[in-house]
Each structure stands twice: as C-alpha cells, then as structure tokens.
Amino acid sequence: MPDRDASVETIQRELTAFARRARAAAARMHPELSLVSFTLLAHLEDRGGCRATDLAAHYLLDKSTVSRQIAALERLGLVERRPAPEDQRAQVLHLTDRGAGTLAQVTANRRAAFRERLADWDEADLDRFAGYLLRYNASAGALD
User: Fold this and answer.
1) How many angstroms separate the CA atoms of 139 and 76, rounded?
2) What does the alpha-carbon distance between residue 6 and residue 106 come to, in Å, rounded to a whole number?
3) Residue 56, CB half-sphere, CA atoms under 13 Å: how many?
4) Using CA atoms, how far apart are residues 47 and 51, in angstroms rounded to an integer?
5) DSSP, residue by residue, the chain
6) Is 90:84 a contact under the CB 8 Å cutoff?
7) Cβ distance 70 to 79 under 8 Å?
8) Who has the most CB within 10 Å: 22, 93, 98, 125?
9) pTM of the entire structure?
10) Residues 55-98: pLDDT tens digits?
11) How much is the pLDDT for 144?
C-alpha cells in the first residue's frame, strides 16, 4: 500500500507548482491582468455584476484588497460602477464591453493552453482528472 503521507506531500507540491504556473501564464496572456483580476472579472460576468463587498466576502479577501484590484480594473476600462437598482446609493460593479471582450479572449487563450497541455491524454484520463478536481474542490469548500 502506498505511503499516504508521501502521496499528500506530492499532491501539495504539485498543486503549488500548478498555482505558480497559473500565475505566470496569466501574466503572459494579459500583462495587465493578474490571476486575481481575471478571477474577479469572471465572477462579475457569472453574476451579471455585484458589489465590491460581495466580492470580498465571496473570496474571503480584505475589502481594501478588492478595492485596489477593482480600481486597477476600472483604470483599464474593464469594469464600471452602476447604481444598484434596489438602492441608488449603492454601487454595483459590471464588466464594460471592453472588459467582456478581454475576459473572453483570455478565457479562450487559457482553454487553448489547457487543450495543448492535455492533448495526449485519453478521454478516460481526462474524465478521471476532471472528476478528481471536482471532488477535491467540493471537499475543500473551494472558491469559484
């Protein structure tokens, strides 16, 4: 029987390497968008907009961290603030047309990179890997 501790150590090491590569790849795909920025844009698209406080709560981030990220996205013209329909005093963040286009392009580039990296994997291996990732993230209460 394999050593469980050794397996867990290998998983931890490989996930750390994966995270490093993901950050580096994000910088190559769009130099002005960090992996965090990309994630925030994707969340805004998925939700059709939300408040900065909702982003902070969802990702368990400090409000000032989200504020800095959003300010950078606004300067790039990727995000805009609009009054909340239910309370005109509140601001809801939305993607601009440029933001939606940038997100679509970066998403397409990321998918192409994954397809290339996994090109020699057979369908059964891809299905198992996808299933394991889903299971891992579900058990960890992973963030979107």
Assistant:
1) 36
2) 36
3) 12
4) 10
5) ---HHHHHHHHHHHHHHHHHHHHHHHHHH-TT--HHHHHHHHHHHHHT-B-HHHHHHHHT--HHHHHHHHHHHHHTTSEEEEEETTEEEEEEEEE-HHHHHHHHHHHHHHHHHHHHHTTTS-HHHHHHHHHHHHHHHHHHT---
6) yes
7) yes
8) 93
9) 0.79
10) 999 988 899 999 999 999 999 999 999 998 888 788 999 999 99
11) 46
Tokens standing for residue 13: 């090491």
Residue 73 in contact with residue 37, Cβ under 8 Å?
A: yes
Classify residue 44 as exposed, middle or buried by CB count within 10 Å of its CB (0-12, 13-18, 19+).
Answer: buried
Both tokens assigned to 60: 């368990």
How crowded is residue 102: how many other Cβ atoms within 10 Å of its Cβ?
A: 22
- Average pLDDT for residues 105-119, to the nearest whole number? 91
